[in-house]
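Write out this protein's structure.
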Amino acid sequence: MIRVALPYHLRNLARVEREVELSVSAPVTLATTLDVLEAHYPMLRGTIRDQTTKERRPFIRFFVCGQDWSHLPADTLLPEAILTGAEPFRVVGAMAGG
């Protein structure tokens, strides 16, 4: 099981608690994880990535084992710590302004 931690506004939209658990078939990549997340929570489609291009939305970041993976290719394989649920895959709302 993969644990996915969502920011507050997306948790409210999906009506879930802090984390959700997903079963993702191999190969487990950034893209396949997001595909399963959007399939289980269709109200999130278009909020994390564009529905047509599948590109990450501005002001959304992906963190894997404490590192920002937002700019890595969508087919990047997730590490073992994410696959086993030891660490969550984090979707984070970035901040802007000054």
